[in-house]
Design a protein that fits this description.
By secondary structure, the chain is α+β, with helices and mostly antiparallel strands. 63% of the residues lie in helices and 13% in strands. It folds into 2 domains: 69 residues, Winged helix-like DNA-binding domain superfamily/Winged helix DNA-binding domain (Arc Repressor Mutant, subunit A, Orthogonal Bundle), CATH 1.10.10; 34 residues. Strand 2 and strand 3 form a beta hairpin. Helix 1 runs antiparallel to helix 4. It is elongated, with a radius of gyration of 21 Å.
């Protein structure tokens, strides 16, 4: 989980994940989205994301294509779900309780 959190703390890496969320992209196409960043730096970002399990890399000859691996976020998501799950259930119970009170008031 530590590697995932460290990988996504960098804004450019988060943008890379957004770029390749829906479809594969060539490393060069990804780099083109960051004109102010050198290609070796973009390659390093891709490596960090891949090593953290957040990117799938596919080689096609000399080309490298990347796509987000949603399952790479599973451990972090489970961690946050522990906190949010209880809170959301409590909110749902309270909303349902309030709705029953309103319904009871309308039936009088």
């Amino acid at each position: 989980m530590q590697a995932v959190l460290e990988a996504v703390v960098e804004p450019r890496r988060r943008e890379i994940l957004r770029l390749v969320r829906e479809h594969e992209m060539l490393a060069g196409s990804i780099a083109a989205h960051f004109p102010d960043v050198s290609r070796p730096t973009v390659s390093q970002h891709l490596r960090v994301l891949r090593d953290a399990g957040l990117l799938h890399e596919r080689r096609d000859g000399t080309r490298r294509l990347y796509r987000t691996r949603p399952e790479g976020f599973a451990e972090v998501r489970a961690f946050f779900d522990e906190f949010w799950g209880d809170r959301l259930q409590a909110l749902k119970r309270e909303a349902e309780r309030e709705q029953r009170r309103r319904d009871a008031g309308q039936n009088r």
